[in-house]
Amino acid sequence: MLQLTLGFGQDFHFSQFSETPLLLNPALTGAFDGVLRGHIYFRNQWAKVINPYETFGASCDARLVDKKHKNGFMAFGISFLKDKTGKSEMATTQALVSIAYHQKIQKYSFLAAGLQGGFTQKTINYNNLLWDNQYDPTIQGFDPALPTGESTLLDGFSYSDVAGGVLYHFDSYEISSPAFNYINFKTGVSFYHFVKNDKSFTQRYNNPMYPKLVVYSKSILGIYRSSFSLIPALMCEFQGPNRELLVGTGIKKSFSQKSRYKNISNETAVTLGYFVRSGDAFVPYVALDFMGFNLGISYDANFSDLKKATKKLGGFELNIRYVGPPS
Fold first, then answer.
1. What is the 3 state secondary structure string of 222-245?
2. Can you give the pLDDT at residue 97?
3. Whether residue 98 has pLDDT greater than 90
4. Is 246 within 8 Å of 15 (Cβ atoms)?
5. Out of 43-47, 66-70, 310-314, least confident range
């Protein structure tokens, strides 16, 4: 018999976590060098498995710059995501709205706090599924015409959710240092699922969604007297009994020194790097920057026990980012 007690399942999952800021920390809303930012992302997970897991998403956030208030600014953002998997076409659709305020605490330093609210809908199609009550010993197989014996199943359900986070970011694009020409640094903590939800596709069981704590940090370190930058980053998630750690680094080659120091969001550059997901996968990635656009491609190579089913190939991921004119 198919078990449907897992009513929620995992949250949306991306290896290029820095390119999904509104899913990482609501306080990252508006934390960029520009006025407007947009993201489009796609992930195809476990393509070697019969029914891969596909996720699509898009987000947009903007700063509200008021020249009369130079010590802080507001920012707003929206996100939309959808995924689908399996013969049951189990799908999740989510819409989120984010708001954040960034307060300047020193010349290059900001402290931000953000809130996020949204709505999630989950659906499933039972037509392609078989149940133990449909097994017919006379034909030694399943007969879809037989009754399922399941009377408590739901075709879908929905719920609301709230998240919050804090962020510190240091944005200095031109400094005097024996090691670095510029430093861009972000670190923060966020908390998801303030609202208690325990719905599932079957009315016989409740499936509580655990609160989730996310810790995030990323730096861009311009190497002194060179056109190269180091980009270390990490992300830790704690949700009930589950833990996830993604850590890695990249090296970026900039081809325009002027934009590198004055407008990092509008530079021309190429980045090569990797992430390691603890106990699960190695994730190489490449990113191209040009005229405010960024194209990022990564691939998960499994080294966990899942590699037998996936043939060590976990997930392809594509991200496109655009950042508008500098603020």
1. EECCCCEEECCEEEEEEECCEEEE
2. 98
3. yes
4. yes
5. 310-314
- Residue 7: CB atoms within 10 Å: 20
Average pLDDT score over the chain: 84
- Burial (CB < 10 A; 0-12, 13-18, 19+), residue 226, is exposed
pTM for the model: 0.85
| 29: nearest Cα among 233, 208, 165, 232 | 165
What does the pLDDT look like over 213-224, one tens digit per residue? 999 999 999 888
> Residue ranges per domain, the chain?
17-323
* Phi, psi dihedrals of residue 309, rounded to the nearest 5°: -85, -35
Q: Which amino acid is at 264?
A: I
Domain 17-323 CATH (choose: 2.40.160.40, 2.30.30.40, 2.120.10.90, 1.10.3720.10): 2.40.160.40
Task: Please state, as a whole number, how many other Cβ atoms lie within 10 Å of the Cβ of residue 137.
Answer: 6
CA dist., res. 81 & res. 198, Å (int): 21
Give the position of tokens 């056109």: 227
Mean of pLDDT values over 38-51: 80
Average pLDDT for residues 68-73, to the nearest whole number? 82
**DSSP track, 105-152:** -SSSEEEEEEEEEEEEEEE---TT---GGGEETTTTEE-TTS-----S
